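Course assignment 3, question 2. Fill in each field.
Student: A.L.
Task: Predict the tertiary structure for the chain below.
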Amino acid sequence: MCGIAGLFHCGTIKPVHPGRVEIMTEVLAHRGPDGAGVWTGPGVGLGHRRLSIIDVEGSPQPMQSPSGRSVVSFNGEIYNFRELRRELEQLGAEFRTEGDTEVILAAWEQWGTDCVRRFNGMFVFAIHDQRDRTLFLARDRLGVKPLFYAELSDGSVAFASELKGLLVHPLMRHEVDPLAVEDYMAWGYVPDHRSILKGVRKLPAGHTLLLKHDAPVPEPQQYWDVSFENRHTAKARDLEAELLHHLQEAVTSRMVSDVPLGAFLSGGVDSSTVVAFMAEASRQPVKTCSIGFDVASADETSHAEKVAQLFATDHRARTVSADQFDVIDTIAGMFDEPFADASALPTWRVCQLARENVTVALSGDGADEALAGYRRQVFHAHEERLRDLIPTTVREKVLGPLGRAYPKADWAPRPLRAKTTLLSLAGSGERGYARALAVVPPEIRGGLWSEGFAAQLGSYRAEDPLLEMMRNAPVRSGLDAAQYVDLKFWLPGDILTKVDRTSMAVSLEAREPLLDHRLVEFAAALPEKLRVRRTQGKWLLKKAMERYLPEDILYRPKQGFVTPIAEWLRGPLAGKARGISKSAMLARTGWFDNDRLAVIAEDHISGRSDHSRLLWQLIMLDRSLARLGIT
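Answer field:
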């Protein structure tokens, strides 16, 4: 795993000073502490920071091909590089190293832009072709690895693995995009279609970008998408066996490493599944680690310990408490953009714990998106059936007003919290699912803004891009559409961003076997009844894993990596909640109604409402703006 950065001049060819690329690369040193390199040519500069995983001594970067035609800076892993190497050797390619970087160069010179379709892995790379005078940028299918880029006033395109790699360039503007603030307050992160700063873009997952010296910057081109339009017709038992095969292949292919390797183990179905297949494939005890909380209702360490004993792993655990939130500024610095998933802290802590013994850790991320494991997906599938039964006029004229009048009872048992369900049923399936995904729904967001900022937003709402994605998705049902946007919108924006930044902050490579694109494509074609059955999501996965895992691991209520932030903001962090309405940084922006923020904080602290996620969003926004130097 590594960090990359660089510059490329479009429309003209200007010299690129190596020192400028070196500065952009140096701020990414945490992503690659084992080596650094810069290469420049006419109108181009590539930088690299290396975390050595494969061919530890023999694959420095940026790397030039044996022919001298191409140069690459690469972040990630190509898991099928040995198979590709054999194929390329038969086609006449020669290799000087034993790693996957040189395979990317040979694949580019053999297949051009189609090379990305051959790669099974997580990757972002930049290839400069000196013959064609182009720069080719590519990102993996699911967006495990990130890439930011921006057009600068001197005609160059700057790119980097993290936003901080662009921020050190003197021509980079530090102007906030107001639409990104609306997006962030809706979702708790800035999604991939936008950046917190104007002029900065993220290369979308499954896309490439081909830059030329004599042409303006084009739009990215999609080379992969997941389709839910087809359905497997085989018997359930045969599909169960095929799923197990995909799982085994995905896990074992990601166990190739020349450095120590382990796994995150939460005690949930997904991480336990990964550990089960690792233990089956390994001759040595698998090194596992988990993080617990000082609030019993959120602590899963006993389940992780049970799985660790079952597979005789070398297991370690630690506890996260509220007093560790004094590292808020450190977390904000990891993400650059505001990021309010409160599980970032325990994820960082478990990465720190893992890094004490290993350099690579496998995670269970991705199964919920691919196999319908989220509670919201299960609810959405049932709601879609109700929408088909209830006439549209009844839903709009009866359920809508009823939902708006129904009290917001955060304190009540879940079955009695009907407000969200009524509002969801009153609208379309797309709007219902957007409401389920949102941290702060539109009617509450509207009450937060100052009059001036509301005018800047105009008619734009953060839900608009998601609704368009759902309507145009290659799907057959509402459940399909929900999973599609979870894979394409939520996963790269939230989950994968969280894991990438927190793992890279401690120079740890995190691998996600359950996001093997072949497994994702297989899962997308499963009949709905093999994904969701009654109240159970991930039905086929749980059925298949019954031979490996005990029932109380497979079928206990889903908890997820839940941080007890609500309790902490009423207790040891109550001062931070109250302080948000008095924040000089947020007040200076003029975006918010500060009196309204004060009421929200007191309502939460008193227990009248649960505004924990909203308050945490505001805290992280405040600290991120300070880190970005926004005034």
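Instructor remarks: The longest strand covers residues 70-78. The longest helix spans residues 478-504.
Grade: pending
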